[in-house]
Amino acid sequence: MKRRLNILCVIVLLVLGYSVLETTYYVGLGIKAGIEKGFDSKIDAKAKEEISNVQVVQLVPKDLGGDILIDSVYNEKNGEYVPAAYGQMIVSVNTQPSVLSRIVSLLILILNYVAIVWAVVLFIRLIVSINKSDIFNWKNVRRLRRLGVLLIIGFVCTFLLAFLSFHNVEKVFSVTGYSLSMADMVHITSLVLGISALIVAEVFAIGLKMKEEQELTI
């Protein structure tokens, strides 16, 4: 039974680790590309500005009840254009975020990293406690509650970052026949894990209270 529990814990840990590494990886790639292009003397100022203004946007056809295939793309297999609708594209637009917006985004990003890393540390401590057969205690209840809160904070931070990016792009960019969307910009994995951790924590708490009440009546 403990082996199965450990396997499940490892799976959850991998999911948490993936959420951290994925964000870190893409942010790192962006920073690396920006630095490399910035120091490349062969690239003119306009090209550098275009690279620095790259944004990923999600698109949804405005008329979902009608013909959603309002565009076309070239099919190299048969040399013909086929109906299509864009769902995501990478564009270079100057969103002109204010200094306050940049500071807020940076603070939210830092808070997100701290919350997720702290959540991973708490989860590891929880696994260690379980392997020592020290499972049903108030310390683990507190760990689970904090873990749940931190994961929810991580989700809220991710949502706020996506919303700020969406709001800034929406002010300066639009596509005929499409509406900008926040779909796929925020994943609910951390939210689901956070709520699950809070539920498990309350189950543990109820069990401990019942145990304490039984010990008092004996």
From TrEMBL:
Q: Which UniProt keywords apply?
A: Membrane, Transmembrane, Transmembrane helix
Please give the start and end residues of each transmembrane region.
103-127, 147-166, 186-208
Protein name, entry field: DUF2975 domain-containing protein
Q: Which organism is it from?
A: Bacteroides cellulosilyticus CL02T12C19
